[in-house]
């Protein structure tokens, strides 16, 4: 089911991006191919084989707004720029993007992925300083952004998956060693009063209980990545007790709440990140983390236990039980 959700979200994103790009093609907010009238105030000439002039592009704000169909600050727009004459005789303009750059031009530069905006010069009169230039074409902005994000997050997913392999192997190995040494059995006995109340449908000696205890313990010490393999193992074991595959049982829902709320005693991962970023007191978040996680856990458990008692869910559970008895 989750796969259908993800593919639906991906398709929605793609079609939305295409729709926005079609709208941009129709409305042309970037004025592709249209010359921008301006004035060029030359400040100095660089020494090179071809004429290179540094100066400032000056455009009245009213003219800028009228050209792009927007509303900006009054006065003049002044942008540092470099006017270069190429070997072919054609002239090009490089406009530097800064904090003073109009927001519309900043968006255009961001789309182009550059710190400057390039334009071809249509005409330039050095005597009067009058200048006309055409910005580089901008199109398919949204679909490019979606494609870039998809590639970046695919790379992130692979990185996370590879990182989990080692953690999963380590903790599954620790679980096996603990099981052989009797540690898990002893820990399970200690936690039996708690697990019996939280998971009355799960036998106290079932492997799912040990996996859940290990997951909760890792979460309590803030070892989020270490808790993941134990959480997956616990769900796998709980599913073996499930009379109807594909439908979450009360125990599954309760465990998911406990896992997601992340009851924490020592937020080790968060402390490590704060310390790595140079925090003066990385451990100052311990108290608030414990309080916040405790509130989330209590609220989650209260909600899941109340929902389990609703007739709708109890009826569905009874039907599933009857199907299991028949089959």
Protein architecture, described:
With 327 residues, this protein is α+β, with helices and mostly antiparallel strands. It folds into two domains: 38-139, no CATH class; 150-326, no CATH class. 59% of the residues lie in helices and 16% in strands. A six-stranded antiparallel barrel has the order 1-2-3-4-5-6. Strand 1 and strand 2 form a beta hairpin. It is elongated, with a radius of gyration of 31 Å. 17% of the residues are buried.
Summarize the entry for a quick read.
The protein is built from eleven helices and six strands.
Please render the helix and strand layout as text.
Elements lengths: L1 H26 L8 E11 L5 E9 H8 L7 E10 L5 E6 L6 H10 L3 E9 L5 E6 L5 H41 L1 H16 L8 H14 L3 H17 L9 H12 L6 H9 L9 H23 L2 H16 L1
Antiparallel strand pairs: 1-2, 1-6, 2-3, 3-4, 4-5, 5-6
What are the segments in which pLDDT stays under 50 over at least 5 consecutive residues? 321-327
Give the helix proportion (percent range): 55-70%
- Round the mean pLDDT to the nearest integer and report it: 81
Per DSSP E runs of 2 or more residues, the count of β-strands stands at 6
- Give the N-to-C terminal Cα separation: 24 Å
Structural class: alpha+beta
Which of globular, elongated, flat, extended, rod-shaped describes the shape?
elongated
Strand content: 15-25%
Key terms:
327 residues, 6-stranded antiparallel β-barrel, 6 strands, elongated, disordered C terminus
């Amino acid at each position: 089911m989750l796969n259908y959700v993800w593919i639906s979200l991906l398709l929605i994103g793609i079609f939305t991006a295409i729709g926005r790009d079609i709208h941009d093609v129709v409305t042309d907010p970037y004025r592709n191919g249209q010359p921008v009238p301006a004035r060029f105030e030359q400040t100095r000439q660089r020494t090179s084989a071809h004429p290179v002039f540094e100066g400032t592009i000056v455009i009245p704000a009213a003219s800028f707004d009228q050209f792009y169909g927007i509303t900006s600050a009054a006065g003049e727009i002044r942008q540092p720029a470099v006017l270069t004459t190429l070997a072919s005789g054609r002239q090009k303009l490089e406009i530097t993007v800064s904090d003073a750059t109009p927001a519309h031009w900043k968006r255009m530069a961001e789309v182009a992925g550059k710190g400057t905006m390039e334009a071809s010069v249509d005409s330039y009169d050095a005597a009067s300083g009058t200048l006309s230039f055409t910005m580089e074409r901008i199109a398919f902005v949204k679909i490019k952004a979606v494609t870039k994000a998809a590639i970046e997050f695919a790379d992130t997913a692979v990185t996370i998956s590879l990182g989990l392999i080692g953690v999963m192997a380590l903790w599954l190995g620790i679980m096996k060693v603990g099981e052989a040494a009797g540690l898990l059995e002893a820990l399970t006995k200690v936690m039996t009063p708690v697990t019996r109340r939280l998971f009355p449908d799960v036998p106290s000696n079932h492997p799912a209980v040990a996996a859940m205890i290990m997951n909760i313990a890792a979460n309590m010490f803030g070892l989020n990545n270490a808790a993941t393999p134990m959480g997956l193992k616990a769900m796998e074991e709980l599913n073996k007790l499930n009379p109807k595959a594909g439908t979450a049982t009360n125990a599954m829902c309760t465990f998911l709440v406990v896992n997601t709320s992340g009851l924490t005693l020592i937020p080790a991962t968060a402390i490590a990140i704060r310390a790595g970023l140079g925090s003066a007191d990385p451990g100052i978040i311990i108290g608030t983390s414990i309080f916040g996680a405790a509130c989330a856990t209590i609220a989650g458990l209260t909600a899941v236990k109340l929902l389990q008692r609703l007739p709708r869910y109890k009826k569905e559970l009874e039907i599933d039980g009857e199907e299991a008895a028949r089959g």
